[in-house]
């Protein structure tokens, strides 16, 4: 029995998500159990925040963007706490579509009483300023032009729903070409013979991007301005004004930690 069915039987359609959610759960367990020697303060928690984001983003996009799952499946994931409901609720608000974690927008978590520097839009920073939140490893999750598509700069910042849907579309296109080129009956027989091989190839490919084309896939960015996001940024810059020049950014190109 699937571990997801131990408390409540998953609704029909959950099997679309289960392989990816299982892989992410195993990845998180592996990262948490790794030794933390040599890591900076807070860095050992980066995978927790990042995989939480990726898992939640995957389910969110599969429902809201690609319509690959039903509302029943979506609600089941929230009810079973397989995803971060609070973070997903924030993504629906203008200016928060790339938010890495609810942690970074809680002023109580930062000594200046603001939010993380990763929430500051690029236009408020000097060109080429490198940003890296010390708690999540986020390199910039503010909405607007010039923002990071992969907010973590690693595989955990990839959009797994976009990758899965693209692979599904590619497989269907290849199947259609095979059906047209070889005839329906012959193609069907070949498909049945090779079904096991194709399944093993999919498992070997894994859930993360296998090439640059997949790595840059995403559901699109919300580039509309947002009053709340700008207010956060201005408050951040005002309270930390001593660290920034007249242009609103820092001349120090080393990574800055909130």
TrEMBL record:
The secretion signal range is none
Which residues fall in a compositionally biased region of kind Acidic residues? 192-215
- Any idea where this protein resides? Nucleus
**Annotated Gene Ontology cellular component terms:** spliceosomal complex
- Please provide the Gene Ontology terms (biological process) for this protein: mRNA splicing, via spliceosome
- Keywords for the protein's UniProt record, in alphabetical order: Nucleus
List the Pfam families.
Answer: BUD31
Query: Where on the tree of life does the source sit, at the highest rank?
Result: Eukaryota
Segments of this protein annotated with the region Disordered: 175-258
Q: Which InterPro entries match?
A: BUD31 (IPR001748)
Q: Does the keyword Glycoprotein apply?
A: no
Q: Where is the composition biased (Basic and acidic residues)?
A: 175-191
Similarity annotation: Belongs to the BUD31 (G10) family.
Q: What is this protein called?
A: G10 protein-domain-containing protein
* Originating species: Tribonema minus
| Taxonomy of the source species | Eukaryota, Sar, Stramenopiles, Ochrophyta, PX clade
């Amino acid at each position: 029995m699937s571990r997801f069915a131990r408390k409540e039987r998953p609704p029909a359609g959950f099997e679309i998500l289960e392989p990816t959610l299982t892989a992410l759960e195993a990845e998180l367990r592996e990262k948490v159990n790794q030794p933390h020697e040599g890591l900076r303060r807070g860095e050992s928690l980066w995978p927790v925040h990042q995989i939480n984001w990726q898992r939640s983003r995957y389910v969110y996009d599969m429902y809201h963007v690609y319509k690959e799952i039903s509302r029943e499946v979506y609600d089941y994931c929230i009810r079973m706490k397989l995803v971060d409901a609070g973070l997903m609720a924030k993504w629906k608000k203008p200016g928060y579509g790339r938010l890495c974690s609810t942690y970074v927008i809680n002023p109580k978590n930062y000594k200046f009483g603001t939010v993380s520097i990763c929430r500051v839009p690029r236009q408020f920073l000097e060109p080429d300023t490198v940003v890296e939140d010390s708690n999540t490893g986020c390199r910039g999750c503010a909405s607007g032009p010039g923002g990071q598509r992969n907010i973590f700069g690693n595989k955990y910042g990839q959009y797994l729903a976009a990758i899965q849907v693209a692979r599904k579309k590619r497989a269907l296109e290849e199947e259609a070409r095979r059906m047209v080129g070889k005839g329906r009956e012959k193609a069907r027989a070949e498909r049945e013979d090779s079904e096991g091989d194709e399944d093993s190839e999919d498992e070997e490919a894994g859930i993360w991007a296998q090439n640059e084309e997949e790595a840059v896939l995403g559901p699109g960015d919300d580039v509309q301005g947002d009053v709340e996001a700008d207010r956060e940024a201005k408050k951040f810059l005002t309270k930390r004004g001593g660290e920034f020049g007249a242009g609103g950014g820092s001349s120090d190109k080393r990574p800055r930690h909130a």
